[in-house]
Structures are given as structure tokens and as C-alpha cells.
């Protein structure tokens, strides 16, 4: 299954009792449709995601980043504090494709633009030969 959505919080690394590391994060997907009365209905679905392949992705999975994920979905039942039984959607991620938009992505783009506009040997006011 593929989903495209935005991270709702920065990713975190958790270490299991068997010393394996897993990256946990949450993604929100949006969908809209028109009901019988012609009203536009917006629907947001939240997925709790896990990624077991490499913990290094935690550096780039920041709140607001748009991602495309490939993996499989499962449900997990749980009991709320009021005793009501609920369920959450878990996405076991096998592939992550970044589409940008997170805090660290924006900071990296800003610093890259600054580096491109001024080279180390360039002084203010120098004319370039081209």
C-alpha cells in the first residue's frame, strides 16, 4: 500500500528489548468528497508508522515533511482512559520517499541557497568574469 501525507511530529528512535532500533512517526493523510447534499467533506486519517531498516532517517523525518510511504497497514486495538475500546492504524513502512516541507528540509534549503550565492573566495562587490 502507498500513502502520501505529512508528519504530525518529529520521528523518534526506540530500542526494543532485543536491542533492535525502530523509527516511530505519525503521518496524517487528507481526503475530501462531496456528500449527497453537495457539501465538501474533508477527512483526515492518522497513521502510526514504524520503520525498521535504518535509524538514520530520524534526522530527516521532521514535523510537516511531506512523505510518500510504501508498506503494509495493520490495526491495533486499545482501551481509552474512559474504558472505550478504540483502534489505531499502524503503517509498517518499507520505503520512504521525501517530498520536502519539514523544518530541517527548509533549513537545509536555506543554507544551500546562501552557499550558492557567495563562494568562499568571493568578496563583496567583486565582479565576476561571466
Structure description:
- Helices cover about 10% and strands about 50% of the residues.
- The protein has a 5-stranded mixed barrel with strand order 1-3-4-6-5.
- With about 130 residues, it is mainly β.
- The model is unreliable at about 105-130 (pLDDT under 50).
- The chain starts with a strand and ends in a 13-residue tail after the last helix.
- Strand 2 and strand 3 form a beta hairpin.
- The protein has one helix at about 105-115, and strands spanning about 1-5, 10-15, 20-35, 40-50, 65-80, 85-100.
The gross shape turns out to be globular
Written as H for each helix and E for each strand, in order along the chain, the element string is EEEEEEH
The radius of gyration is: 21 Å
Q: What's the total number of strands?
A: 6
Figure out the total of helices: 1
Provide mean pLDDT, rounded.
Answer: 83
Strand order of the largest sheet: 1-3-4-6-5
Structural class: mainly beta
* Helix share, percent: 10-25%
> How big a fraction of the residues is strand?
over 45%
Protein name: Single-stranded DNA-binding protein
Keywords: DNA-binding
GO molecular function: DNA binding
